[in-house]
Amino acid sequence: MSKEDIVRVEHVGMKYQSVNGEIDAIQDVSFTVKKGEFVGIVGPSGCGKSTLLSIISGLLRPSQGKVFINDEEVVKTSEKVGYMLQKDHLFDWRTIYQNVILGLEIRKNLTNENKEYVLHLLKTYGLYEFKDKSPKQLSGGMRQRAALIRTLAVKPEILLLDEAFSALDYQTRLVVTEDIYSIIKSEGKTAIMVTHDISESISMSDRVIVLTKRPATIKNVYEIDLGCPNRTPLKCREAPKFREYFNAIWKELDVHV
Amino acid sequence: MYDNNNLSPERIKYLKKIKRQKIATWSIRLLILVLFFAVWEVAANLKLIDTFVTSQPSRMVKTLVNLYKGGDLFLHIGVTCLETVAGFIIGTILGTLIAVMLWWSDFASRVMEPYLVVLNSLPKVALGPIFIIWIGAGPSAIIAMALAISLIVTILEVLNAFIHTDEEKIKLVETFGANRLQVFTKVVFPSNIPAMINALKVNVGLSWVGVITGEFLVSKAGLGYLIVYGGQVFQLDLVMTSVIILAVAAALMYQGVVLLQKRLAGRQASDK
Ligand SMILES: Nc1ncnc2c1ncn2[C@@H]1O[C@H](COP(=O)(O)OP(=O)(O)O)[C@@H](O)[C@H]1O
Ligand SMILES: [Mg+2]
After folding, report:
1. Per-residue pLDDT tens over the stretch B156-169
2. Which residue, A15, A64, A168, B271, is most buried by CB atoms nearer than 10 A?
3. Residue numbers in B near A137 (CB within 8 A)
4. Run of H or E including A9
5. What is the pLDDT of residues B61-95, one digit of tens each?
6. How many contiguous H segments (helices) and E segments (strands) does chain B have?
7. How large is the ipTM?
8. Residue boundaries of the structural domains of chain A
């Protein structure tokens, strides 16, 4: 444990209760994330990845263990955490601008300064001309970008991405990954990204945490060092060591059909 | 998305075909209506049917004119429409409010569920005499009847829509720390406006049923009153005329709701 750890997950376990029984989703998961780091979490579908992110975000209380953000225990949703879900969930009944200020509206933080910031983000990331349009008129990639701006608008320090690209088709996905990655880096955010896509995870992360099948425990952790300067996800995919990491993690996941 | 400036020959042909179809549909519709009344009239004139029990279009027109001259026509139409609109509006607002409360509290909705099911399956007409005794014979009892018929259905429909709001959309606003009220105002309510308008459509029809039933039981004016009265004194002219007026009024009100729906949908579309 060091001073620069922004997120600390300590012995977190989660058992869902229902009338029909108990689902053991997570068992004793511990890890830390440093400021500015990009951490990928991979694991088979249904192993408990979304549950883990919900716990880190404070949406869900773990049944065991604790999560700390900046040394403060997480007990409810924190202003420091931004969450990106699998789909963009832009609301059809709002314009793009009204969509991206949703978080500020809910937090009753719609100051002039914040409005300026939102407009600045829209301008920087090429959505300014679309601000009064309906989400229906945007392409999948632009919608995802709008969703990211909606998350960034509340100025989180940490971004949680839950399969944030998996609703997109493959081509769009590569471009959007590139796009979102550069935005996250240029805004200097810390990120934890959950996915079942090994390549996506290696291409974006500084570190990949591999989870077992449900109940999720940490099986292995890979420091990703592809030796490519000015890394972008696409460049990383071409690095020679990419396949090595891929094969190692693939074996680790032990996928059976 | 569509290239509508330069119409290709294929497009012109297609548009012409659509137009032809539309004209044909409307002509046949009109023809059926005219034929129906013409056959009725001719059959009555040739004494093929007994106008004492079937009435006859020309006599219905005469009845209509008499009602108008007597100054009662718009009174009856007005009373019935007013009762229907009142029942409709109160039913919709009250039903939606109760649905909101039940959505709000899982516990309350669990507790209320069997009561709603029983009330929903109860033939509401049975409550008529109770309303008359409690509220008195008058328009209020009739509106209560309309409410009884539409309220439970509204609650169930709207609650069902609320409950099935996209969980992920709710999760999204919760990641921003939304409380229950914000979850409702930012997601649940706006995303269910189409479902609520559909409930309105069902409601218009049910309010008519309620009002006419109520007027059958107790009334001194209204289309339902005219129909019952006409039946009692065996004046089929009056009965038939009132039924036709009723059909027109109900259709107009339904179209009103459809128009409202289009306006709302149009407003969303024009945001584009
Ligand atoms: N609210 C819940 N109640 C009960 N069980 C749940 C709930 N959410 C998820 N689960 C179960 O927990 C397990 C892990 O789910 P999840 O975290 O969504 O997995 P992943 O995101 O890795 O696909 C699954 O078996 C799922 O059925
Ligand atoms: Mg998931």
Report:
1. 999 999 999 999 99
2. A168
3. 272
4. strand A5-18
5. 999 999 999 888 999 999 999 999 999 999 999 99
6. 13, 0
7. 0.90
8. 1-80+160-178+189-257, 86-155
Distance, CA of A165 to CA of A167 (rounded, Å): 6
Of all ligands present, the nearest one to the C-alpha of A162 is 2
- Provide the shortest C-alpha distance from residue B177 to chain A (in Å): 6
What is the CA(A25)–ligand 1 centre distance, in A? 7
Rounded mean pLDDT, B28-37: 96
Contact A126, A160 (CB under 8 A): no
CATH, domain A1-80+160-178+189-257, list 3.30.565.10, 3.10.20.90, 3.40.50.1360, 3.40.50.300: 3.40.50.300
CB distance A16 to ligand 1 below 6 Å: yes
Q: How much is the pLDDT for A62?
A: 96
pLDDT in the model for residue B272: 38
**How far is A49 from A30, CA to CA, in rounded Å?**
13
Which parts of B70-175 fold into alpha helices (H)? 73-104, 106-121, 128-135, 139-163, 167-175
- Please report the sign of the dihedral spanned by the C-alpha atoms of residue A55, residue A59, residue A63, residue A69: positive
Angle (nearest 5°) at CA B79 between B78 and B85: 85
Residues with Cβ within 8 Å of residue A210, at least 6 apart in sequence: A42, A43, A218, A219, A220, A221, A222, A249, A252, A253
Does residue A70 sit at the B interface (CB-CB below 8 Å)? no
Distances (CA, A) of B94 to B82, B152, B182, B222: 18, 10, 21, 25
User: CB of A45 closer than 6 A to ligand 1?
Assistant: yes
Contacts of A82 in chain B (CB under 8 A): 175
Closest of A34, A74, A73 to residue A57, by C-alpha: A74
